[in-house]
Amino acid sequence: MNYRTVPISVLKKMTTNKGDDLYYLSGQKPVLVVFLRNFGCMFCREAMEDISRVKDKIQEKGVEIVLVHMSEYEVAETYLEKYKLSELRQISDLSTEFYQAFGLIKGNFNQLFGFQNWIRGFDAALLKGHGLSVPVGDGFQMPGIFLLQGNEIKNSYVHKKIADRPDYIELSELAGERVK
Q: Would you kindly state where each structural domain of the chain is located, as residue ranges?
């Protein structure tokens, strides 16, 4: 199978809050890199709740989870603490340079404001309690998830609309193989 690679220079530039870079981490073990939407987004908060619920299962497989966001570390920490994710490594990408390097685009009208997003938004914001808020970061940036090993993307999910809800457990597996 032909996997897409990420330039090593990009991965070395992606330094976490703990001082290590993504190239080093992905050379040690598979890394599930989760590019979040902005923290003001109800779907971002729902995603953090989903990750919190499955993070132990993913880590038991030997996969490291790294969150990428568009906020200062101090701002991010308040949200990550709320969802019990503050122990995970995180990368601040205020300029969305890393989002772009992984091919994540700015959303179009349908991806951001389409009817299905309104229906799911009502459920996530009001029924599930993730609330409504102003964007904390680029409100047009689309999210995505990538399983890295070395500088190869072994599995990925690029959101088609902001309301998509990917399976993080499935994404932590190497394209058909179980990660050990």
A: 4-171
For residues 62 and 130, the answer to whether their CB atoms sit within 8 Å is: no
What DSSP state is assigned to residue 178? P
CATH of domain 4-171: 3.40.30.10
Nearest to 131 by CA among 79, 69, 172: 79
User: What pTM was estimated for this model as a whole?
Assistant: 0.84
Specify the 3-state DSSP secondary structure of 143.
coil
77: left (phi over 0), alpha (psi -120 to 50) or beta: alpha
Mind listing the pLDDT tens digit of every residue in the chain (180 residues)? 345 888 899 999 999 999 999 999 999 999 999 999 988 887 888 999 999 999 999 999 999 999 999 999 999 999 999 999 999 999 999 999 999 999 998 887 777 666 575 556 655 555 565 556 556 778 789 999 999 998 899 999 998 977 889 999 999 987 445 444
Q: Give the CA distances from residue 120 to residues 61, 62, 63, 112, 156, in Å, rounded to whole numbers and listed in that order.
A: 31, 32, 29, 12, 22
- Measured CA distances, 128 to 8, 78, 99, 134, 165 (Å): 40, 20, 28, 18, 14
